[in-house]
Amino acid sequence: MKKAFDAIVDAYDQWYDTAEGMVIFGAEVKFLRTLYEKCPGHWLEVGVGTGRFASTLGIAKGIDPAPRMLVVAARRGIVTCEGIAENLPFPDHCFDGVLMALTLCFVANSQEALRECRRVLHPRGSLLLGTVPADCPWGREYIEKASKGHPVYARAHFLTVAGIVALAQNTGFELADAASTLFWKPGQAPQTEPRIETGIVSIAGFLGLLFRKTTSEHINRERSLRSNLGSGQGYNGVTRKRGR
Ligand SMILES: C[S@@+](CC[C@H](N)C(=O)[O-])C[C@H]1O[C@@H](n2cnc3c(N)ncnc32)[C@H](O)[C@@H]1O
To answer: Of 72, 95, 112, 147, which residue is least crowded by CB atoms under 10 Å?
Structure first.
């Protein structure tokens, strides 16, 4: 999967300029910005692709294993680096924030990728995941396409919201905030003014999950809480049912 996106770089990047792409990207970037702006500082995008998110949000640096994607990102002004999430070529504690937008599902080892994100973050740094969960209508649509051999989705491992949160928590992150968007179903006409809601809304097609790196004190407290309370805890109060 490492360089697979190189084969589709033009089609991938041009989608953002289609009518549908502009509406969807506009909504995604707008709501990621609400979370991103809570953590000012020096950011890295892991899986930067052609640099659409990084350049629009103002993230200066990006890493990706696909060199042709990086050529386009560099044209957008991103300082690029070829490499994989599971082995980031950066020293410990050198970023205030790391963004992974639509990338976690494509990495070969998601636990190792998050461990590396944690390593390069400052002690209270932030990890922002932009993701299409497996358990939403868009995730189910992509999984269906994957089962029919779709060249991109067939390579993805879509995770449920609970799976992503558990993975991050097990890697030393705590969920600090979340936002949801894409409230229309695949195949329906996009909303012209896509709604953005705070929290995790189960039917949303795209979620932004903002995690903070936990200290060892936090981790010990979490562990003892979990063993006292058993499993099945919520997401630190960030989950919301629709309709208030
Ligand atoms: C769906 S694209 C997202 C690109 C960009 N973030 C965006 O939203 O336009 C997924 C990206 O993940 C990259 N990727 C695949 N495996 C990776 C890995 N192990 N580490 C980092 N990036 C990876 C791909 O090359 C691709 O650019």
So the answer is: 147
Residue extents of the structural domains in the chain: 4-229
- Calculate how far, in angstroms, residue 158's C-alpha sits from the geometric centre of ligand 1: 14
What is the distance in A from the centroid of ligand 1 to the CA of 244? 35
Closest protein CA for atom 27 of ligand 1:
49
**Can you give the three-state secondary structure of 109-165, one letter per residue?**
CHHHHHHHHHHHEEEEEEEEEEECCCCCHHHHHHHHHHHCCCCCHHHCCCCCHHHHH
The more confidently predicted of residues 193 and 60 is 60
* Start-to-end Cα distance in the chain: 41
CA–CA distance, 165 with 62 (Å, rounded to integer): 24
Question: What was the pLDDT predicted at 190?
Answer: 75
**Is a pLDDT exceeding 70 seen at residue 222?**
no
Q: Report the predicted TM-score, pTM, of the whole model to 2 decimal places.
A: 0.89
Domain 4-229: give its CATH code. 3.40.50.150
DSSP line for 183-197:
-SPTTSPPPSS--EE
